[in-house]
Amino acid sequence: MAGQEEQAFPRGVKLLHDPVRNKGTAFTDAERDLMGLRGLLPPRICSPAEQEERVMGNLRAKESDLERYIALISLQDRNETLFYRVVINHIEEIMPLIYTPTVGKACQQFSHIYRRPRGLYITLQDRGRVREILEHWPHRDPRVIVVTDGERILGLGDLGAAGMGIPIGKLSLYTACAGIQPTQCLPITLDVGTNNESFLNDPLYLGLERRRERGPAYDELVDEFIGAVQDSFPNALVQLEDFGNQNAFRLLAQYRDQVCLFDDDIQGTGAVGLAGLLGALRISGGELADQRVLFYGAGQAAIGIGNTIVAALLEQGVSPEQAHASCWFFDSQGLLVDGREQIPGQKQPFAHQHDPIEDFAEAVRVLKPTAIMGCAGRPGVFSEEVVRTLSGLHERPIIFALSNPTANAECSAVQAYQWSDGRAIFASGSPFAPVPVGNKTLVPGQGNNAYIFPGVGLGAVASRTTRVSDEMFLAAARVLAAQVSDEDLAIGRVYPSLSRIREVSALIAAEVAGIAYRRGLAREPEPDDILAHVQSQMFQAIYPHYA
Fold first, then answer.
1. Of 23, 69, 84, 170, which is the active-site residue?
2. Low pLDDT (below 50) residues in the chain
3. Where are the domains of the chain?
4. Which end of the chain is more exposed for a tag (fewer CB within 10 A), N or C?
5. Is 347 tagged catalytic?
6. What homologous superfamily does CATH list for 267-450?
7. Are the C-beta atoms of 10 and 21 separated by less than 8 Å?
8. Is 99 a catalytic residue?
């Protein structure tokens, strides 16, 4: 298993095969003699900078992003320090390779590109022995666990066990963006089957060859897993990731007040969506209370953003009725209105009194929103008609095409700018290239949850909080929005540059930890300087010295 620890400190070939301690060609002469490496490496001693140059040269020579992804994961499997040095120093170039959009392709091809195990797989067949499986993990103090059941991977749907690429990628960002120690990160997949027909018919599929479980056996497995984590890893934060709508909201509601847990698709997306909207308002003018946001989609992401907007408005003194009336939702059945049959509980507060509308462009014309946000993975639904209608209503229309991966975006940056005559304030879930508009170049903001969850996790780890609250995510949104500079806004970007993400994560972590201390949730005494305490715990991609 990647990162496996030895009873004794490894030497020789075992050291070269230990990704946590391996330095490759950067081992010094003295270290080669001391650690039994003489002759096992080429004689040239390379600096970390030279190793990084070699990696980047090889990556850029690859013909496809999927090949680059495979190369990076292979590097992570053999030399984690170098891997994170490369990611940290080239975050804007590398993040799209180890996370969205490339990770979506990697998950779809997971069973065919599989090389080396990373993380834990817990299946329906493992009920009754989940704790035993957790004890197989070689690192005894994981602080962040990202777990998925693979049902709703990005906008790609049910990928079953192949969804493991998401927890692996998320945890890479925890380390690269917020400095969580690599050995304190644990990716887990709960394999309860899949309804993906192509996978079930694929002889190389690596997961359970059965349809997805939705009965009591599913709940029993999840409950056993949560209990086993509490017993085996009591310091761990659990992040729920890419569960289907049917389970995500109820699992969050069931466990959030019992353990240190959150759902990134609901709460993390909510925070990054609110932060982007606050940034957009610095361009368009106006107050949050005066906005009307129309969402395309009413799943975890959309409802998460809606709930966070409502929380922000309630904090400003707006009534619950007015706060909820600022958010409208358009889902597979059309405009979400009161009187529709069988409205799920999470949607009910947003079901307003209105005549049904089945066409999204018509909903834009009638409701006259100040902003539209796409969260349903339906490419093209922000059509030219929709964008031009919105642009006719407002001088600076706010258009957030947040669905991932890139192919699922509701519209492209070029389309948003072109159809709005360069007036749109645009952000997306996956990255888009800068767009020349008139005599300037606009840079689309990327509403990536990586701006939020790593910092929240770092704050939770630094304070050893017992719970992760909505207050923490609301604070994280405000911190993120405050880090958008006037220079960012001048080029149309409503999020700070990704190159600043470790700085932003540290600031978010300090705010999150501060809330944990103030609310009596922390299991660590409050330091004199919370930000300095947080920064002191951040992993640096620097080789250790062995001699």
1. 170
2. 1-6
3. 47-259, 267-450
4. C
5. no
6. NAD(P)-binding Rossmann-like Domain (3.40.50.720)
7. yes
8. yes
